Amino acid sequence: MQSGEYTVGQLATAARTKAVTIRYYERQGLMRIPTRTPGGYRIYRSDDLDRLLFILRCRHFGFSLENVRELLQLADQTDAPCAEVDAKVARHLDEVRERLAELQSLEAELQRLSRCCAGGGIVKDCRIIESLSRDIGNSKTPACTP
Amino acid sequence: MQSGEYTVGQLATAARTKAVTIRYYERQGLMRIPTRTPGGYRIYRSDDLDRLLFILRCRHFGFSLENVRELLQLADQTDAPCAEVDAKVARHLDEVRERLAELQSLEAELQRLSRCCAGGGIVKDCRIIESLSRDIGNSKTPACTP
DNA sequence: CTTGACCTTATAGCAACTATAAGGTGCATC
DNA sequence: GATGCACCTTATAGTTGCTATAAGGTCAAG
Coiled-coil segments, which residues (chains A, B) (predicted)? Predict the structure, then answer.
């Protein structure tokens, strides 16, 4: 193993991820097939580290592995127009905003649910259980108004 | 099949879910084991519908099946104190708020990323790809200031 | 008694890993 | 050269909450 070369574990450490994840990315066609030592150990170089970091940054932005695969393909075609990259990011942003809206209304509902129970009673009288047993989501009159 | 009784498909329709989901909940120990017709068809009654609706409402609130299992157990012990129910809901609300915060910062980051690309260039000059290739999340100077 | 809609089970797949088992390699030390 | 230990290899199963498929059986109507 020469300088500037990494085993899978060293690459993992350098990118703050795990060896299993790198091998998984290889099986999924995201990481390139590396060369091997005579004994079969994977050998990575700095461009593999770049590629891994690119993947991890995309993941950090919430892109699926499928999306990352596509982004990698686009990034490799340096002369292609970047409208597709732009569109992919925009679409992903839309999806994130959608999930955000869902989670916000979920938070509001849960907060309402949470305030139903003062905390000192028994299950039989618990307004939370009552709320979960009736269809509070669809009723016009709320299950409880704390 | 008498009135007030349901096949799995009828129960599914009544609860606006699917038969496979009900059978799945049975395997996971959420729905009770139903009686069967001589031919082996599951027969449900209205309390099974209540239980299914309870499960689906919990799911709507984002509880995991594991949580729902626990909530069902608590709901069955009508004389137990409901502090545990209260705590479970509060903990879940905390988790939802955490995910919400993560998603909000993700949205901000993605929006910044999105504005990096004007849309007319080629991949080689694309600020988005550049941003994904550099570690913009950890750099003090932003990858681009559109 | 046939048709057709429904039911039954078992099994595999999805995403993105994580965990486990059983064994092999590389390198330093004795 | 032998030993020890950290690390590597593969294959396989598990996670969550379903969904899809296959191959077959049942029910009720006509």
Answer: 89-116
